[in-house]
Request: fold
Amino acid sequence: MPRTAAGLSAAVRTSEAELIDRARRRDEAALREIMQANNRRLYRLARGILRSDSEAEDVVQETYIRAFTHLDDFLGASALSTWLSRIAINEALGRARGRRPQVELGSLPEATLEAQIIQFPLSSAATDPEKSMAQREIQRVVEYAIDELPDVYRMVFVARVMEGMSMEETAELLGIKPETVKTRLHRGRTMLRENVEKKIGPVLMDAFPFAGQRCERLTEAVLARLGVG
Reply:
């Protein structure tokens, strides 16, 4: 007989609990599995606050170090991914405060901040030069449009659109009401020009990638700091 939704949810919780238990014992395979499952989300959330590739990578690494050395503090009230995301957001906000005056994310002023255009991390050279050039241009437009959004809208946009989180997940993660998430997402979208909005869809999943060598490098760095492997 097929499993019910409740049964599947319980199975997922059991699987995650077993994974966390292994991670507490510094099981290398468990640590790798957790990092590989969460690297991209944590990177995108951190970058959504800091708008810097290198700083976002630092935040992800520090997030794992803090989490893996304090796994006993994780009580399972939320998903492990949510707990890790909150640590990453707090770490990124702390770094942002060190760069400029800033209050909590939920009460940031609704004013457009100065955009910072960063070098977009591209994959290996494509076999089609024209297609590669077009993709780079679209990626540049996507990155610029996202970076120039005010912080409160950019974080909702990253969580809802880029990471595909639900309204409820985003609200829980950012500590705001679901209605606020909906309003901020709508207002954020209206700030993007129509022609940019049309270009976002096809390439969105390739925006701010965190895979391959970058993902593996960060994973190995965290394991080394933990003395595992």
The chain has ten helices and no strands. The two ends are 41 Å apart (CA to CA). Residues 138 and 202 are 10 Å apart (CA to CA).
